[in-house]
User: Fold these one by one.
Assistant:
Number 1:
Amino acid sequence: MRAFLDQIFVLGKERVLALFNGAPGWLLEIISSLLNIVGLLIVFLSLFALVSVLERKILARIQNRLGPNRVGPFGLLQPAADGIKMLIKEDIVPLRADRVVHFLAPILIAATAILALGIIPYGRNMTPFAIDGGILFFFAIGSTTELSVFMAGWGSNNKFSILGAMRAIAQMVSYELPLILTVLPVVMVVGSLRPDAIVAAQAGYSLGVIPHWFVLTPWGAAAFLLFFVSGLVESNRTPFDVPEGESEIVAGHMTEYSGFKYAIFFLGEYLGMFAIGGLAVTLFLGGWHAPFSFFEFVPSWLWFFAKLGALIFVFIWVRGTLPRTRVDQVMNFAWKFMLPMAFACILAAAVWHYAGRGWAAWAWSLLVVALIYFALARLLDTGQKFAPRTYRFAE
Amino acid sequence: MNSAAFIVIAILTLAAALAAATLRKLVHAALCFAAAFVGVAAFYFLLGAEFVGLIQVFVYVGAVAVLIVFTILLTRREVEEDRAFHWSGALVALAVFAGLAWAIFKSAGLSVTATAIPGLTVKQIGEMLMTDYIWPLQCIGLLLTAALVGALVLVMEEKR
Amino acid sequence: MTLQSLLIVSAALFCIGLLAALSRRHAIFILIGIEMMLAAAGLNFIAFWRFGSQPAPPTGVMITIFAIAIAAAEAAVGLALVIAVYRHYRTTNVDQMNQLKG
């Protein structure tokens, strides 16, 4: 029963494939891929609908409001209403816009986000697109987002759009570096670029309760934090939503989009967030492994989505609490702090590996991370800039 | 299925490349350039060199195309169209293609079909890079650093 | 899919790159053309590795990887040059960059 629940989707797919028994091999291959794609789309489109309403609810909670509660029970049918509204809205294309580029940009953003979702292992034997260089595939696909953001900005032929696109590309390029460098220690320690191998390397428990997740090592914790912040930037979420800051440049590269194209942008952004979150779960939070050995009876895919949900909650929480940063602050933070710390993580991971991966290694790598962190803090002299602010009021 | 994929990818790649070479608008050409390189990466995938295909997409679409686009924006003039086109260049290109095609069709032993896919894993490539190809790798690192510094020096404002 | 057809495709890609580099006058087009020619060469390397006698050492793959890295460096420096020249002459047309004096 346990094994059956764990593998229910795998078995279901096998059952469907059995219907085509006798078909030629290439047809079976195509059907198998199509099934994977359809499953991925169903899961993540419904997750998108759910998260979009939950985000509004949680934000409302943080701001002491009620949030959407008119459509359906607890406002849960709000996404359907929104979708219908978006569909029947007028689709406006500016007269001077570059029509083809303007049209292709949202499609590319959503399509690449869906492709990136393909390499993540969602459960035991549940990687839709198991490829040898999976992590590299994720970043190769992710790096095309910059080009589609540029297409959106340039195609709209609008000052705000192009400014927003330039801001977005500049910050994405800057944060891609720490994002990839923080993945390197994990890849080094595991010795593989295959997501399945990375998840398998985090199996097992010390003393029966402490899982062997990379986030529980000093270098892993530091890398996870850096990865998470870079992920916030890559998915253009608050506090790093400078490219689409409403109060400065209307909506950045999405200014000239309306109706369903705007909805597709929204979808692409959320799928990107899911992809980054899923990769963080795979790399640092043990993938689909249960947090305690006595919880292993729960199906693996449930654990994956529980962890993903927790990460998405933190994404929303951060959005509800932190104010937007300035452009120069974002860039300075990337180059002066994130990049050296990412290198520190690689160093600490190497120390951890060569000191034998035991408790002593744990302490040594903590020492390396802490030393570099404090040296960097001293060097950047953040103490003065973030001194408590004194307020003066008109009297 | 491989042949069908080959034909589709070949047509898409060559069409995108031709568009990149002949389109008037610079930005369109740059986007077609990115598409052409995705096509080349697809060829690498088809030929079993997945790793090379991935870094092809990573480097060309993620970095070079974005650089080109940035350069276009930084050097924009009132007209961003490039109308000048030398037909003599087209003649030379056609002549070179005719020569190459003639050579390819004339040489014996080129019409071999594929043997079994050589399963080349990323791990093997990494080991090769760290053993047999360690000096070229170091040289590439040096070259990239030099290119980085050189590009920075070039685009820095001249002191007057 | 034979080696011959692949070589024809890569020859066509090379000649399209040549066309871009020779016919267009905009510096960025020339760079695009050069990148295309490099990619065609890489495709040739991979094709010969794939259709050669197996198991062979992946020399072709290695050379393509290094070629991609070199092409990236070349693009960065080339585009920086375009920007530097544009600052000076206010043009990106290579026919108009005809003075040695700065």
Number 2:
Amino acid sequence: MTMLAPYRSGKSTGSDRFGSLLLAEWTKFRTVRGWVIGMLVGLLLIIGLAALTGANSQCSYSPNGTTSLACPTPPTGPGGEWVSDSFYFVRQPLAGSGSITVRVTSLTGLYSTHGGREAAGGSPTAGMTSGVQPWAKTGIIIKANATLGSAYAAMMVTGDHGVRMQWDYVNDIAGMAGKVSAVSPRWLRLTRSGDVIRGYDSADGTHWTLVGTATLPGLPSVSQAGLFAASPGYTVSSTSLGGSSSKGGPALAMGDFDHVTRQGAWPTDKWTGEAIGANDPTTIALPASAQGFTQVGGRFAVSGSGDIAPALNAGDTAQNTLAGTFAGLIAAVVIGVMFITAEYRRGLIRTTFAASPRRGRVLAAKAIVLAAVTFVPGLVAAVIAVPLGEHLLRENGNPIYPVSLFTEVQIMVGTGALLAVCAVLALSIGTLLRRSAGAVTAAIAVIVLPFLLAIIGGILPTSAGDWLLRITPAAAFALQQTVPAYPQVTAQYTPQTGYFPLEPWAGFAVLCAWAAAAFVLAVFMLRRRDA
Amino acid sequence: MRQALHAEWTKLRTAAAPGWLLLAAIAATAVVGALAANAVSCPGGGCQIDPAKSSLTGIYLGQAIVAVVATVAVSGEYSTGMIRLTLTATPRRWQVLAAKATVVGTATLVTGAVAVLISVSTGQSLLDGHGINPAHGYETLSLANGTVLRAAAGSVLYLTLIALFGLGIAAAIRDSAVSIGVVLGLLYLFPIVANFVGDADWKRHLDQISPMTAGMYIQATTDLRSLPLTPWQGLGVLAAWAAGTLLAGGLLLRLRDV
């Protein structure tokens, strides 16, 4: 009896190394013509919809009712952002270092509930209602010059937010809380030494507290310093089926000052008043004739309109060019689901698992290949769509909110990442359900539907919409938000106006958590079930 | 035709998925509607709230499940090869599509009626508890009220038309994943793109041709003057989409090899 050695193939084992798995999955994707075409269609839809929305968003501005011009662009602040810079300024030059101290004894206001600056006939303040806006402000300011958008630092009392120190439009620090009145006045002080300005507040003029320290690089040696007053406009917004609408009008803030003391080199002794930016069409402000100041002995009364703050909602944003992301997303979801369900339908899954019995690794290879083939088209589409859409929007007279290079890169890379992670989520749902129609619907219902319900006005209350954009995968669309929200500016910070409740990368993390959870569950079920 | 109808009814009845999916559509419509109605709050009064529309918010999700049932009724036959048997038994292909449309349409009509009735009655009690009631100047959410009845009956028709729309697209495309992707894309993309278009005229035109936005006008009971179309015209837009896709799907079914 002879022992027969069993046949052994001379070929080396280990063909399921991870690299080979990736190659196998890439081959599967590459050779299905429909998937490659589907991805290209998604890419073209992202670009095409950017062109469509850009070409059909005309913005025109008619200063005197007849000529139609491009919409006006707000002034630009020191950090490159759009700003509102209109207020009443009672000023003197300050040569070099020095300080100014005042006591504020009251802040009152008027506001219009009906229309713009021409609405009230006769006196510009006729028919206005008495009341102080929450962010109406009056106090002292040191500003580089009277040019709109120039650097400044200011100490102020506000309508509802106590004493604040603000500088260069975007910075805001809280000082003493509570409202100002004759029985509870507020003492404010600004001191300049070089480029550094310190703000102090006090309840009695003897015990001072440092509120904040601002560095204004390149502040000229002779700056303009003095008293100011400004009030942002009054708005009420309503949301209905037809969209959201807001109405309101400009407002006036009136501040009373005494105990004005100056230290340092103040070359003149005469205060001059000027309504800064009253003619700037991007700010809601009363005409210069409605603003002014009076000086009786050591007492000053200053009334001003407008705001010194970042300007929001004044034009278009880069995120408006990316409406097509959703078309690309649906393509990525369909391909992501089919990447696994097609294997079940054709029976290829048995061959796949025969070649590589470690199922978790197979799904990981699928996820990596899928993420790559959706990330790249998404990134390419965004890199083309954003500049193209912005160009068309500008051609149509829309000013575009200026964003940093970092934000620009964030929305482009974010679009690719969004498609890639959504495709992996769809792949995991497809693995769990093994039915293509159900899996596509489930993926779209958790990604696109919450966004739709949150942004379309009149479907859900804003609070419910915010809540959806915190916990569903749709939170990741925060990656495309380009305009920051500022607490010191009253505006509609809602999903309808492009503001997401989460920070961009936090929103993306919510999507990633969903995708990771679905992927782990998919691997678990894939191992447990028969193929 | 009777036999074709009977065959289609047997297929729908004996597969497990359609029954469960239609139950899921009822549950999804009712739950989302109840959550949306519960989220409505207006402590001060005078808010612009459409009671019928809020309690029927669930249709936005329910329609997706109904679309799955409808598309799979056609594309499922292609993935299993059943279509060859079906067309052998009933060689008149228009008749097959008509029978499918009748059976799936009727099933959706019944499902939709149950879902809408549940949504309206839960919405009524929830909104009443939140002070959205005639005492605060809102319309009564009752089917005895003509506009509410129109919104409710219209929503049932809306779901039926969505099913026919899905059926037509699936007959044209034949693949499940791609069909449902195209159906949901056409439904959900129009309102999102319209939201991003700055030009008011263009936004209005997009809303007027969007199958979902225009079709959902049937649910509006307040502020009708702000809508670009009347509620019935809006439902007519969706009916046109459904008729168009059924026609295209039927022609392709007639002209192509299986």
